[in-house]
């Protein structure tokens, strides 16, 4: 369904009460009239919808109602393995030819070509251009091959064992180990507890090929499949393609029964307390499992709205508590949503502070009880309704600009779960008509219905070194059972007693105006020196993106002030603004689509934000107040410190945290300001110095440039610019960032980190050094990196079966000094580190000797062209271009010409020269993570 962002934050359920008297409770919700759907004679279902965002693109899905839940004991992990084999040879695409063909057509593996396997379904995803007819038609051949023509080449199966094992390996760690222990409790006596999609490594390593093929033949059949197509195409033509490719697939004779597995009920509460030596913090979750609510009728939709209102209001209260320094938890949330199979779950979840598990649980139960006894206030309900209606209005306003992917999940759920998908036209009209029928009375009874004595599960996970301070199972259950006797008082809804902005401002003058006609940009200079770049677009109907930039940043402060400078804006944004504390400001902005926040980074300070055009004045008001009336609350700092101290307490137990800190330190030559954060550093932060740094960075707007891109017209927005930006303080000072001369070390640097108990390694290889900045070289180095990534994927993953994925990142920076960087990163088995490193260096040598293959270069160029076509119609691309061009002192109007030239000028020969220049074997950094036992064994 087209449920808004706000609604999706939680779905709480209850009986519909009198609120349904104004509509037809049993009336079924319609299917979106824009989608054409049908069922072929063999049982395959299809959904087809014409949509023109993005232009000349389509999203295709093959949905199979079969996942790991259908595996027998000898097949655990094979539903997922079948998904992998879909990319390793089919009847019409041998071995890797499928990926090769799609990449040549501009389809990026991973982003546009992918799949996932869950408990109950497997979904294959394909994003295609529609303006190349043969490529688009071939997409349906790909879907058909996935549906019934996988090759299962024995050699490819053996290779893929290693890839799937590496995917399993990436998930190893404290969270996975603890999950293995508590899942049987959480999924009480259900098949789901024994059918995690990743499977069992011993089965992945040793299964017989017929088991894999058997799963595919048993469950990949038309009656369990749907084809979904949404995009810029002719619906009738796509329907013909679906019938052509899928209509002839024979239905399975005497098919196996597709059992719908469920979670059994239990009357006794289930508790699991699990600790792990590498866990970093405590997590506590209480689940009240309840019958699933399927949204099929108008009555169901009213339930959805009630849940949404309840969820929003209760979580707003919990967030107010979380922001207090003496709160017993760092994070907390209350939600009810779909859980698994036949169950929804009402969940009270938190990250308690050390020693405060009991208090955290009690606090959450008290908030639920407070609603039971005293209800929500009328002002809370009014704000929640305003916010939800605003979300629907925004979605409706953008109904002709919704992108293809926005529809896909709706139709997947319609097929898999029979969940309604009525479309935003219906939903917005329904909500406008019926939202006000929901009163405080209905919602005030909701809390009591969510908590019951049956189907209760408590999961507590924690660091092993805190085991002795944890409550016992009996203590946790006693808190739950006795919660009705807690003392609570009515909630006091503290709201603003004045408007956000009341200052009288006179519009400033515009002293200059410049048109960049080639790209439709207007540049204004206001009398206080502020520069504003404006690009109106019609890509969205209401979206406006906002940025501001000024050179300086944390580079202007000594090491002893670095943390204050780096964290000042984080504390500021949790403190509110002007005369409004954060919780009051949040309520004041309820129902508006606006957000803006200042930042201070290494070389700059500025703002980042967005707004609905209807709320754009509020964005400017907030920006003005962040300049002129910033608010720092010492409680916000205390809350932040408590959060950081909790996470830091056991950070050194986490292999990935230690590895990440080591890599950062090495890359920055162990500079003091980039040292890993310690509890002492957190405790010593100076509140007053934060305020001083922030005031200094935002004291003078005269060296700021502002950028706006989106749905506005110049005549309407210009007075707002003059009023709010034109009155920002300006003293005419000139400044820039400072080069602190913090660079990676020269020479060959090799660092091993021994941490963790799992057979798990991480490898990062970085070639870096000084260079002369050249924009064309930077673009071509990025192309070289993408070509190298294709080759490493083939070598390390497809041929060697040694990794799940490998990443290559490149850059040539201009500021604060001219440097290049090419990094290669992957995870693997410890025993394979040296072998895979050898393969990486081997592929790099090939690049240096002869450059990339022209065929790989053609793929990269095709992908970049296609992605650029789409980016040109996105506000995000343009605001990044304008801000980046300003910072780099470039002409933004030349960007398109440069992009085309960067592709035209690239060749294997010039990339060979580039590889020779930047892959310097005498100047690189290698950091490798090994498990602790490797060090103990002397390997």
UniProtKB/TrEMBL annotation:
| InterPro entries (UniProt xref) | Metalloenz_LuxS/M16 (IPR011249), Pept_M16_N (IPR011765), Pept_M16_Zn_BS (IPR001431), Peptidase_M16 (IPR050626), Peptidase_M16_C (IPR007863)
| Pfam families in the record | Peptidase_M16, Peptidase_M16_C
Q: Which cofactor does it need?
A: Zn(2+)
- Record-level Gene Ontology MF annotations: metal ion binding; metalloendopeptidase activity
Q: Name one GO biological process term.
A: proteolysis
Residues passing through the membrane, by range: none
Q: Which UniProt keywords apply?
A: Hydrolase, Metal-binding, Metalloprotease, Protease, Signal, Zinc
Annotated family: Belongs to the peptidase M16 family.
Kindly indicate whether the keyword Signal belongs to this entry.
yes
Entry keyword annotation includes Iron? no
The record's annotation in PROSITE patterns points to: INSULINASE
Q: Which Gene3D superfamilies match?
A: Metalloenzyme, LuxS/M16 peptidase-like
Domain Peptidase M16 C-terminal, chain residue ranges per copy: 208-386, 687-862
Renumbered to this chain, the signal peptide range is 1-22
Organism, by scientific name, is: Anseongella ginsenosidimutans
**Occurrences of domain Peptidase M16 N-terminal (ranges):** 50-168
- What PANTHER family does its record include? NARDILYSIN (PTHR43690), ZINC PROTEASE PQQL-LIKE (PTHR43690:SF34)
Protein known as: Zinc protease
